[in-house]
Amino acid sequence: MPFAAGINYRTYQEDESTPVVLLHGAGGSQLSWSPQIRRLSGYRVYALDLPGHGKSRGGGEQSIPAYTKCVLEWMDSIELNHAIFVGHSMGGAIAQSMALDFPEYVLGLGLISTASNLTVNPQLLEETASAEKFRSAIEKIIAWSFDPACPPRLMELVTRRLAETRPGVLYGDLIACNGFDMTEHISEIIRPTLVVCGANDKMTPPRNAQSLASRIPGAHLEVIPAAGHMVMLEKPQAVADVLARFFMNIHDQSQ
């Protein structure tokens, strides 16, 4: 897999089709996206490991603007002029930042399990800052991230991947989320937007998604039944189908 601007990424369907950039959430990597989404037919999909995550270099960042700058540097380094940005949780915050501050790079937004502000539970911040309590923090994140009916095997896989994240990187991600609040400016987004959430999301509840969609002009909301915060892994085909319909509408509008 190639590197550019210190970011490890993979491209699916390397052709001239509409580019889509996948931005994972706190402590995640490009593997946070299901194959159904990474390999979505008809689009050139880029799946990134943000700095300090997965196989990317660096120690991560502690603010959404800093991550946004990293994404911009990566785009410039591979001469990618614009894309549809699909972001999960923290990645959704980065996508919002892109649309508000650098709209010329943005064709559309897919905002998954995210909100216009991402206040983090103080206990979670405390535990991720402590090597002794880091395991407890991971257990809390997993407990709050899945629908009760989620297969244990999937939860075990995500737990293992999250535990591989360096504690300082995950802590920095949560600091970045806790400092993110675009509520006063979210209505200024002028790009086509899809908001997706799991019906049983405890981290960013459906009311947050409803508020986000209501504030962005023309935004469309999709609530996926029997899913939690990790909706794109819990219900991969349902999310892939929703994204495909949204992408098609962007394509039709551009004709």
Q: Can you lay out the helices and strands and say which pair or pack?
A:
Blueprint lengths: L2 E2 L2 E6 L6 E5 L11 H4 L5 E6 L14 H14 L5 E6 L1 H12 L4 E7 L9 H7 L5 H12 L6 H12 L3 H12 L14 E6 L7 H10 L4 E5 L6 H4 L1 H19 L1
Parallel strand pairs: 3-4, 3-5, 5-6, 6-7, 7-8
Antiparallel strand pairs: 1-2, 2-4
Helix pairs in contact: 2-3, 4-5, 5-6
Explain how this protein is built.
There is one protein chain. This protein is of the alpha/beta class and 255 residues long. The protein has 10 helices and 8 strands. The chain has a single domain (3-254), classed as Alpha/Beta hydrolase fold, catalytic domain (Rossmann fold, 3-Layer(aba) Sandwich). It has helices spanning 35-38, 64-77, 90-101, 122-128, 134-145, 152-163, 167-178, 206-215, 231-234, 236-254, and strands spanning 3-4, 7-12, 19-23, 44-49, 83-88, 106-112, 193-198, 220-224. Strands 1-2-4-3-5-6-7-8 form an 8-stranded mixed beta sheet, with helices on both faces. A hairpin with a 2-residue loop joins β1 and β2 (7-12). The two termini are 33 Å apart.
Compact description:
With 255 residues, this protein is of the alpha/beta class. 42% of the residues lie in helices and 17% in strands. It has a single domain, classed as Alpha/Beta hydrolase fold, catalytic domain (Rossmann fold, 3-Layer(aba) Sandwich), CATH 3.40.50.
Uncertain regions: pLDDT < 50 for 5+ in a row? none
**Name of the CATH superfamily:** Alpha/Beta hydrolase fold, catalytic domain
* Binned strand content: 15-25%
The termini sit apart by: 33 Å
In the CATH scheme, what's the topology name?
Rossmann fold
Question: How many individual domains?
Answer: 1
Question: How many helix segments?
Answer: 10
Q: Helix fraction?
A: 40-55%
CATH class: Alpha Beta
CATH architecture: 3-Layer(aba) Sandwich
H-E order: EEEHEHEHEHHHHEHEHH
Radius of gyration: 17 Å
Number of strands: 8
Indicate the structural class.
alpha/beta
Query: How would a textbook summarize the main sheet?
Result: 8 strands, mixed
Shape: globular
